[in-house]
Design goal:
Maltoporin, Chain A, globular, 741 residues, five-stranded mixed β-sheet, Immunoglobulin-like, mainly beta
Length: 741
Amino acid sequence: MRLVLKYFVSVAVLLIYSSTLGISQTIWGKVHDETQIPLPLVNVSIPAIHCGTTTDSTGTFTLSDITAGVYTIEFSLLGYWRVAKTVRIDSKSLALDIILTQTTLETPGFIITGTPQPKEILSSTQSVTVLEERDLTRLRGQSAMDALKNVPGVSTYTTGAGITKPVIRGLTSQRVLVVADGVRQEGQQWGDEHGPEIDVFDVQRMEVLRGPSGVLYGADAIGGVVSVVKKDIPSLDKGAPMLGAVATVNGFTNNHQIAGDIALWGAFGILGYRGHVSMRNAGNISTPEGELQNSGMKEFNAASMVGTHAAWGTMYADISHVTQHFQIHEDPVEHLTATPFQNIQHTIFHVHGDIPTPFLRLEIDASTQQNDRQEFEHSTSSDPRLSLQLLTSITDAKFHHHPIGNFYGTWGISLTSQKNRSVAEERLIPNYSSQNFAGYWYEELLLDYLTLSAGVRYDKRTVDIQATPELNVTTQSRSFQSATTLFGAVWRKLEPLSIAVNAGQGWRPPSAYELFVQGVHEGTIQYVIGNSALETERAFNIDVTIRFSSSKIQGEWTLFHNSLNNYIFTNPTNKIDSVSRFPIYHMQQAAAVMIGSEFSIQAQTIDNFTLGVGVDYMQATNKETGRPLPLIPANRARISIRWSQEEFTRLKSPYLSCDIVITTAQTRVEQFESPTAGYTLVNIGMGGEVFWNAHRIMVDLSVDNLFDIAYRDHLNRYKAYALNAGRNVILKCTIPFTFIQ
């Protein structure tokens, strides 16, 4: 490991030096509307190299010191349809003339950064959804993953108000990776009630990549990836003050929750910095049939970063710490006085470097993260029944080569090291250490109306298991290795229509939990028995996506087929453990198939009004028994109506919205799984922006479950004995300040 790190440092120094010898170019131009009126304050950005600016009063922009390469540039202004333009920079400066068109549609993010090369969404072979800062502010819930619950093809697996796991096309946990600023989130993902430890206030954009994504992200991404992008480094060139602040307050009536965040940010000379602290305090969840006892939560988080943007590249270091306390509601019939809870601490230290050179762009991410999880039986317990400590170190190096003819792409290597220790009375899983090495190559061919892509990755993972007599586990070593492949094509002859085909093969080795678990898991109220004979899980997915994107209509339709061999699942046995009185579950494996479709469209119907419709449909079947797989989300449809305009009295960008979510009954269930009835929810919202001393104050008021409907979501862990939350009125307010300009 030390030799590898020394190699990376040497390469980085060499590339920084060589970059000073290269020829850099300038991108400049003008942005105007359809009537040729110049547009000031348009955001112009190149995400691949963290470069950006805004247009001046004449609509003119300039981006300097751009090295050779293929880049996607995004132009965005509130109230206008975004424009994404892919350009090739060589030995000449580039002049652009950009036209923005007014629209009332909720403009989606047009640039995808969770791919080897940032690109516009119409050129993506994968089915992708992007949520950006203003949308995330409106959708912000009680966990970072809450914002995804109505994204096409995405559901959430919940435990109470604060624990939310993303489910992509029926797959979750260690089949769906959550990545924050390019770093895999590693925090005992195997647990049903273990959500990603990400601060909801520290997110600028989220990207959902549906389908196998293992070429870039490695084994375990057979279902897809949720890519979380945090706020960028401030810089004087982007108009950052020397010292600014943002205060955010959120209130939720359902569980009497108060949440807030205070962030300081700015730039001094060549350095930019950002820091924030946030808290959350909530009581019991309220349902139409009463409160759920022991369902409150607390959270305290802090993060900071410092770095610089310069002609030679970007470099920053950041550290974040998340502290969470979750009460776990249990069946009052079986455990009337039960008050179990969890305490989680997660710390990440991350260093990122992005260095362009005359030949390629080097991107390095090195991180260390420590996850400490404790589970207690009673509110008065001082000693945890379960205590797990997971230490993960990851080093990734990506080399993005400049165009060779019509080819451009990325190759890279990744090293991951883990140590997991159990230090309490209960040994749910054995202690283990693991090492993972990977190398990958991804290439794209750009033709006039066709983009072809292909990638391959090889992973080798070694897991050393320590003897654990309590689990009847002896000292042993397991080794897993396999290749991941990806092929895709995008046809864009009839702009703004694109048709994409994507085929991917992925794999996932069984986790130590799935192999060796044996005992009571208080968090899930289960007695789980592992299976040491489990084999590697493999998936082959193919999907076809049709996209249409204009200032009047934006839509996407996807069909997918996912075939899985050795699919691992927790199967209920309909038996009860005699000591704990918890139901017994076994780890099993079978061939499975998942098929489905996602459809979404939004259209500007009349002035200031937009109509949106979305439908999710899927079926998942155990091919060996012919029965459904467990824990598959119910099918659903969404209808949304939104009014917005540029200004109303003193309110800027005001909006009114009404969303209707229709969820069907889920009766295709495993033999001992509980079915759930269908239901319809109505959610409303309103908000806008007020300018005060040139500062933009954002206010959003919404009501979830307006009619206080009694329902059970099929992916709610409490569904067998408790309803989902009732009516919830939510107020969000974000107030910026500038102290030193």
